Amino acid sequence: MSEFETIAADAFGRSLRGLGVNLLCRDVGAMAGFLREVFGLQVHRLSADFAIVQHGEVIFQLHSDGTFGAHPLLGMVPEAAPRGGGAQFYLFGVDPDAAVSRADPDTVLEAPRDKPHGLREATILSPEGYAFSPARAL
């Protein structure tokens, strides 16, 4: 069992270092399921309001809109999807061909292809409209 399953919220917050990513979601469960099923990411502490997502050594968080009720950022989030326009999250080491084969075809923004910068990558939109790009070295 991961330490993420049992760590207290305040201890978790104090443990965070470096760059943190938090994605606001209308439906945390759907977003977590998408990340787990399509990309094979680990999901910890899943509830209706929160989840910790792990990709190797990298972690990020999903929060429901309700958890941000008093935060000014929530007022800037569009009512209608997509929410993540302009943001792209690379998942290095995830096979783009396999991820696309598991994704809903209507969410595949960019099919897998070899890029001149040495990666094979694709881009898949999450249920919230965030762009995730699985990529592996050529």
What does this protein structure show overall?
By secondary structure, the chain is of the alpha/beta class. The chain has one domain: 2,3-Dihydroxybiphenyl 1,2-Dioxygenase, domain 1 (Roll), CATH 3.10.180.10. 19% of the residues lie in helices and 33% in strands. The chain is built from 3 helices and 8 strands. The protein has helices at 9-15, 28-39, 96-102; strands at 22-25, 42-44, 50-55, 58-64, 88-92, 108-114, 119-125, 131-137. The strands form 2 sheets. It has a 4-stranded mixed beta sheet with strand order 1-4-3-2, with helices on one face. It has a 4-stranded mixed beta sheet with strand order 5-8-7-6. 22% of the residues are buried. The mean pLDDT is 90.
CATH class category name: Alpha Beta
Structural class: alpha/beta
Quick check: average pLDDT?
90
- Overall morphology: globular
The N- and C-terminal alpha carbons lie at a distance of 34 Å
Indicate the proportion of strand residues.
Answer: 25-35%
Strand order of the largest sheet: 1-4-3-2
- Helical content (DSSP H or I, runs of 4+): 10-25%
Largest sheet: 4 strands, mixed
**What is the radius of gyration?**
15 Å
Count of DSSP helices? 3
Question: Tally of extended strands?
Answer: 8
CATH architecture: Roll
Which regions are unreliable across 5 or more consecutive residues at pLDDT < 50? Answer: none
Tally the structural domains: 1
What is the element string, with H for helices and E for strands? HEHEEEEHEEE
Return the CATH topology: 2,3-Dihydroxybiphenyl 1,2-Dioxygenase, domain 1
CATH superfamily: 2,3-Dihydroxybiphenyl 1,2-Dioxygenase, domain 1
